[in-house]
UniProtKB/TrEMBL annotation:
It comes from Lysinibacillus alkalisoli. Signal peptide: none annotated. Gene3D superfamilies: LmbE-like. GO terms for molecular function: hydrolase activity, acting on carbon-nitrogen (but not peptide) bonds, in linear amides. This is Bacillithiol biosynthesis deacetylase BshB2.
Amino acid sequence: MEKERQLLIVYPHPDDESFSVAGVAAMQADMGVPVTYACLTLGEMGRNLGNPPFATRESLPHIRKKELIAACEAIGIQDLRMMGLRDKTVEFEDDEKMIAMMRQLIDELNPSLVVTFLPNYCVHPDHEATARAVKEAVRRTPKPQRPTLYGVGFANNTVEEMGEPDVIIDISAYREHKYNALKAHASQTGWMLQELENREDSHGETTEDAWFSTEKFYTITFDDE
Ligand SMILES: [Zn+2]
């Protein structure tokens, strides 16, 4: 992967970044690229309270904030922006307000690459609202400054309808970063990592390899290009 000028990552929930782009973000940070993560909420409505539970409704936002900071440290993200929206309500935010928020980030940072979800293929209403706003904000960026936009799609019908992702990046050198980032989100991922480790024990490398060897993206393009 080429060295970017500035990477901007936009997701609604703490842990979206670790699942989607931890390897690429770690790689770019390692190359000396400034990496900004705009995390729109603190995931305070998350259903998981740890397994076994160690969070309460009251403590979850504080715990997730700490987890988010730890995950960013594990990845090497130097610039974490907590944007202060409320979990599960991103879909009800005014579209123009969301787009303006994204435009401001793009204007300030002048990223060469923006990473978010793939509109229509990212399952959760907060994900869709985020992806829509980011895409529109990038579309409205004047062409000479317009960054490349990558979307992560993971709906069941993504590959069937969109084909295979056009960008596949080998992140195997950064698997530790990704693993540690996921581990930092213990309230949400504890069960999953346990399962991964268990599966490794019985079946060898397969599950672990799929998760930690590549990250895949769809390049989002615009009609006027
Ligand atoms: Zn999410």
